[in-house]
Amino acid sequence: MKWIGLTGGMGTGKSTVAGIIQTLGYSVLSADKLAHHALNKDSAVFQQIIGVFGEKILDSNGQIDRKILGTVVFQDKFLLGKLESIVHPYIQDMVQKEKSRLLSEGAEMAFYDVPLLFEKRLEKRFDRIILVTCRRETQIERAMERTKLSKEQVLLRLKTQVSEEVKATRAHYVIRNDSSLEELKMKVQDVMLQLKKDLKLV
Questions:
Q1: pTM of the predicted structure, to 2 decimals
Q2: Domains along the chain?
């Protein structure tokens, strides 16, 4: 089974591209969704996270408040590293289980939507990598709208990510998401066709 990395900074429209790929009949695992699951009360690592950060990160329902946790870790690289050291092995375990399932079902190709692909040096794990990118101003506006964070908070998060320019030099395919949804769908279909040709799946 060919394993394809799908990446892009916050606000670039990567999740929209993931949705389009799914409508074309392919499985797309989401690192963000797995990370959100790791923060739920019923996850295997919930108590570990509370053990490190304390109950100050909990909301009134006893769940981890992602906005509070984000504010804490994105201001302190050491704490961000601590969180990642707990959450990332959990996510990788979930990914391996899902890959095994897809392989057993005979999938010829599957995608992993992972925002920090380059930041975590995961390039060698994939057969091909697709980058979704857009203009910086558009990215900031979209990120603010989606997350309800301030511009300063968004910029703080973007500072922890590899620049879009550097990512573009490392990806096999680059999808620019600066215009309409219809145009984006066409670009995704073009890349998918090229991808299948490159991997000799057509």
A1: 0.87
A2: 1-27+109-197 (3.40.50.300), 31-106 (3.40.50.300)
